[in-house]
Design goal:
Elements: E1 6-8, H1 12-34, E2 44-55, H2 64-71, E3 76-78, E4 84-88, E5 92-93, H3 98-119, E6 122-125, H4 147-160, E7 164-169, E8 173-178, E9 190-196, H5 201-217, E10 224-225, E11 228-229, H6 234-242, E12 259-260, H7 271-280, E13 285-287, H8 293-298, H9 306-312, E14 316-317, E15 319-326, E16 329-336, H10 345-360, H11 369-372, H12 375-388, E17 393-395, E18 401-403, H13 404-422, H14 427-442, H15 447-458, H16 464-481, H17 500-503, H18 506-509, H19 523-533, E19 537-541, E20 547-552, H20 553-561, H21 572-575, E21 577-578, H22 589-599, E22 603-608, E23 611-617, H23 618-642
């Protein structure tokens, strides 16, 4: 999509012109397959590495364009958000030391980017979703300011007819909405490409679908989003719900998602995928295509199939079939798009070796896949893997159920080894990479399991904000060691850095678990809520979620001290402080403390866009004081040790 000036389709003429170009491209593709024009001797592999930047406080750093300009390297390109970039690895022949060469190039590119990031006070981080990311980081101002991203966002919003809505349930639950597609920028992946022989492309694509669930189960690395433990691979849900374009004005109309696993096995041709997509999905974007694919074939030339490629780039299949040209020869490749970034380069390469080995170790009877395995089982396996990772159970092609551990260790790893040996991959590399997958599964520790367990342990004594900072700090530290994730110890609070990383702004220390009342509620309800929850302040909000008052235990005591008899009809409105002083989540914590001291307040409601989102109380400052004193004590102990 980046090679063509794109725009939102606005007129019938634009639609007609671009659809005509797509149909010509599809007809040309069919003819090229019939004429055996595709490369079949040199099978290549490649990859795309997405990564994010974090600043010294482990928060997203909006430096992508500055770093890209200084890199001045065609391997790198932009991503949707300013805090992400992408590195494209060179395609190489899939044989011999291909995997170790890919790893070496990846290390080199990442080190180059990391050095420039360091000069900007930031580091690069490989993770499926950055644990410290906040909804405020996803405001439209942080989209990469390129026309194609604006055009895609405008097209999606137009077709959807409203905000993007999210409902993801794991250990915790996330229910929210957002006004742009930038929510998808939470996700970073490591996409692996495999060029396939055109004679095998149908079977290979079906096999890629069959193995997607168990492969994903071994690779998960994005369990945390906004401080909530969701799916083991939350990226899958985020992407699918971001690009769910069901029109809010006509919710009963069934519209197929543009992020799609698929609905059936391929039968005869890879072009069935494109036929399905063109039939079901509206154009989001178009471009002025100059080439006529059919005319180019008549002239004996190889067409770029630009229109079809652009359309295909707006359909986000987890296994995507793509057309390309290398050294003047057309090829077909399968792009694995569900593997997350991280936790380390060597983990990514292990995931790559596992998938590529399985693809080349494809059983001989896969041509009969429809009789061996129901497609819905493959689809459900994928969903279960995204939700539960190594905790999932799968229905396999022999009709039996297996735990993820059983299927991977006993069936798939041996098959992957056969495939890598078939491609004459160096024995040392086979042992190294598949050994990492084996140990990861045996130790039951993927990136998601490590992050979830670390977070859960930290939450015993820490706030959500402290825990996500510590997890991110621990992730960065261990990533830089280069050791695979199955060897990692859990993150500790001492890794989270100074108070600035944890307490600088109100959103880092406020309480988000809110107990609220309305002005017409009885005081008896308030006193019981305070007693049950051991709290001293309760915000009063109206039906729109706007703060209209605050009521404290001191207010209630003061009222009753002046009254001789209890009043059963007393309501919140009779006692509450109206129009209380509020702060925003981005207010500096020290400024909030000054407001509370100056106005002799015990709490401050926290509002955003006039809506109550949290509360900051005296207890929160007591908690902070304890940790600050601990930090000072540790500094003093170090100083005394030096002396």
């Amino acid at each position: 999509m980046g090679a063509l000036d794109v725009y939102v389709v606005e007129t019938k003429e634009q639609r007609k012109r671009f659809v005509t170009a797509i149909l010509k491209d599809m007809k040309a593709l069919d003819l090229m397959l019939e004429r055996n024009m595709f490369e079949r001797d040199n099978m290549r592999i490649g990859a795309e590495q997405e990564f994010c930047f974090v600043d010294k406080h482990l928060r997203p750093a909006m430096i992508g364009l500055e770093v890209l300009a200084l890199l001045d390297d065609s391997h790198f390109t932009t991503e949707l958000a300013k805090f992400n970039l992408e590195a494209n690895l060179d395609p190489i022949k899939f044989t011999g030391d291909a995997l170790s060469r890919m790893e070496n190039q990846l290390y080199g590119l990442l080190q180059k980017a990391d050095q420039i990031a360091l000069d900007h006070g930031a580091r690069i981080l490989l993770t499926g979703i950055l644990p410290t990311i906040k909804k405020s980081d996803l405001e439209f101002e942080n989209i990469t300011p390129y026309p194609r991203y604006h055009a895609l966002n405008d097209a999606m919003k137009k077709q959807r007819g409203g905000d993007f809505e999210f409902n993801i349930k794991g250990t915790d639950e996330l229910v929210t909405k957002h006004n742009s597609m930038l929510f998808e920028a939470c996700n970073t992946s490591f996409q692996v490409h495999l060029q396939v022989n055109p004679d095998e492309v149908v079977d290979k694509y079906n096999w890629a679908q069959a193995i997607a669930g168990p492969v994903l189960a071994a690779c998960t690395n994005s369990v945390l989003l906004f401080g909530k433990r969701l799916w083991d691979e939350t990226r899958i849900a985020v992407f699918e719900q971001t690009v769910d374009l069901k029109n809010l004005q006509n919710p009963e109309r069934e519209i197929k998602s543009r992020v799609d696993f698929g609905s059936s096995w391929l039968e005869e041709s890879i072009t069935e995928i494109f036929q399905h997509d063109v039939a079901y999905h509206k154009l989001l974007l178009a471009g002025d295509v100059e080439e006529d694919a059919m005319e180019m074939l008549r002239q004996g030339k190889v067409p770029k199939l630009t229109a079809l490629s652009l359309f295909n780039g707006t359909i986000y299949k987890w296994n995507r079939a793509c057309y390309g040209i290398t050294d003047g020869l057309p090829h077909i490749r399968i792009e694995n798009r569900y593997i997350p970034a991280g936790p380390t380069v060597v983990d990514e390469m292990a995931n790559t070796a596992f998938w590529l080995g399985l693809m080349e170790g494809m059983p001989d009877n896969i041509g009969d896949i429809a009789n061996l395995m129901d497609f819905d089982h493959a689809k459900l396996n994928f969903i279960k893997a995204a939700q539960m990772g190594l905790g999932a159970q799968f229905r396999w092609k022999d009709g039996k159920r297996y735990t993820a551990q059983e299927l991977i260790l006993n069936r798939l790893l041996p098959q992957a080894r056969i495939g890598l040996e078939k491609m004459k991959i160096d024995a040392h590399d086979i042992d190294k990479y598949l050994g990492i997958i084996e140990n990861r599964v045996l130790n039951h520790q993927t990136g998601s399991i490590w992050a979830s367990q670390s977070f859960t342990e930290l939450r015993r004594t820490a706030t959500v904000e402290e825990a996500v900072v510590a997890v991110t700090a621990g992730m960065l530290k261990r990533q830089q060691s280069g050791n695979p994730v199955h060897t990692w110890s859990y993150a500790t609070m001492s890794e989270s850095g100074s108070w600035e990383n944890k307490f600088k702004h109100v959103h880092q220390v406020m309480s988000k678990e809110l107990y609220t009342v309305q002005s017409e509620d009885q005081i008896a309800l308030v006193t019981n809520v305070m007693n049950w929850r051991k709290i001293h302040h309760v915000p009063v909000e109206n039906e729109d979620g706007e703060v209209v008052g605050i009521i404290s235990s001191a207010d209630i005591l003061k009222y009753y001290c002046k009254k001789d008899d209890a009043d059963d009809d007393l309501t919140v409105n009779d006692i509450m402080t109206v129009n209380p002083i509020t702060v925003t989540p981005d207010t500096c914590t020290i400024d909030a403390l000054k407001i509370m001291r100056k106005s002799n307040l015990g709490c401050l409601p926290v509002v955003k866009n006039k809506k109550l989102i949290g509360i900051l109380t005296e207890f929160d400052f007591v908690y902070m004081a304890e940790h600050l004193f601990e930090e000072l004590s540790n500094i003093e102990a170090k100083d005394n040790h030096i002396i």
